[in-house]
Predict the structure.
Amino acid sequence: MIYGLFNPDDVESSEETGLNFESIIEEFMKNAEENIPEEYMQEWLGELEGNWVYRSWIRDYAKRERARDAAWRNIIEKIEKGEISPRDLQVKQLLKNFPRKILERLAEDGFIDLKWERHLMHPKVYLGHAEFTTQSEKLIAKRLLDEAFANLEKLGFGGHETMKFGTGVSPSNVISEYDEFQHSFDNLDIQETLLGVSVRDPEEMDMKDDDFRARIPLHRSVSTNIILMDISGSMYGDKYKGCVMAALALRQLLEDEYKEDKLHIVAYNDEPSLAVSGQILKLRPHGQTDIGRALDFCTQLLSKAEGNRNIFLLTDSEPTVSYNRDQSPIENMYRAAYIAGKENIRLNIVMLDRNPALKTICENMAKLNGYTKIVYVENPLNLKEFIIKAYIDSRRQTA
């Protein structure tokens, strides 16, 4: 349900099999008019005075809302009696026909925050919108990562464990003698140790210091990464959604599989800002584009980071403004890309537009940075698969 709110286009179609909620609501509509108490209608109509056109619309709306409430109660009652299976409830139809009931329940469970504002013209009317919470953001991120891996597996891609031995925390199949100066007690393999003793001294099982065995951990080099996400006005729609999906999926991958690595999500328009957990789904595209300022912000953020340092720049355009008054927007961007390269920061440019002029700009940035990869993504909604695969491939190469 939470994912359906975030990405309604990805849930099942309303034409699929299941209950037809609209017909149920229409059935209750037939008897709604005669059963509506006068005081109920007065709550809706009290402030309209002589506005008969609006009054007629409000009456019809109140009638449908009352029928919708009755249909909801009827469906819940049938579920409780076992007459309807929850599997017959299509998410898309639920969200379409019972949005208020769904949102109120999700708010009670802490998955969304309902924000209300009083209507300026009608004080008794409130306008509201829903915001995802940290709890729901986590669920959505898990679903996105699962989808990304499922899609990649269809393309024949899988597996993401490096196989270089050294110090680390992930166990391997390699066994060696225990060295108290090299290994911790967490590396001690009791089963292998006892097996060795039983072979050497099956009767007495007299354990000696050189009998102890350690399971050598896998080594995975540390990296610090930034998803630099364009949220300027041109990124509205699927481009913005695709960037958010990619950022959440990559963050979940690191939390699940690469706990030693770090990820920062930076959103930028004419000014960059660090987007912490719980804030990412609240971002909205607006403003102009200052890529130079955003790259400077990321370079500063990575200045004291250890290991490999990467910036994934997700954008659809060239810069339109520059916070550096002595340089044009493009000059400011080139300067920032060059400085990032001098700091040995790898720049991965993901361009969501194939404009030839943008291709030239990206190539110039790559030359100045010296560590740049450029990719053009046709469908922004496939961005999460690309980012996940690119990240895992880069970890394999640097392991």
About this structure: The chain is about 45% helix and 20% strand. The longest helix spans residues 52-81.
